[in-house]
Design brief:
Radius of gyration: 16 Å
Structural class: alpha/beta
Bound molecules: zinc ion
Oligomer: single chain
Length: 223
Amino acid sequence: MEIISNVHLIPANFVNMYLIVDPDGLTVIDTGMPGSEKRILKYMSDLGHSPADLRRIIITHSDADHMGGLAALKAATGARVYANKIEAEAIAAGRASREIKRRGLVGVVLGLVSGLIKTAPATVDEFLTGGQVLPVLGGLRVVETSGHTPGHISLFAPSVGVLFSGDSIVTGNGKLMPSRPGTTWDMDKALEAVRVQAALGAQIVCSGHGPVVKDAAGKFPQV
Ligand SMILES: [Zn+2]
């Protein structure tokens, strides 16, 4: 589904993956559950692109539902992989970057599920830090949004006002919400991450879970 020109949502069962089309090649943000590489490659093929057209894979954080398809997608495409250093170490080990506190129903269920999901380890080629700008969408800025996990990052494209928030902001019923407590590593940091992102001036928020939110400016939660 095209969100705006050259920015696509590749929907999966309960997690979002994004595909960006630039003149020099394609970029994927997050790779869904294990097996999702097939869905991404099919979407690219439907747009007329070959696997080799994928140049970059950016991972917001090392949870199984965001990096599950990474190893297979990298192998199929040869794309360069980008993530924060802390998350990269977890990705290399095929695990999450923090323990899921088994608190509340969501935490208990996710804690159990994350123990069952096997993710293939993958090598991150380049570590990202806040303020870094990638040559994507006329300049895709890395925003440090630690909280959901220790090294979580978001990506902001000022030229089009689009924020890719991973799990630092989830969406539902047209609303923007902080990372849910049951799956959050550090809630104080997670709320700070929301404040940082509210100040960016994003018009469109593309979250890891939930529908894309447009006209986002006034919708950031006061936390
Ligand atoms: Zn997550």
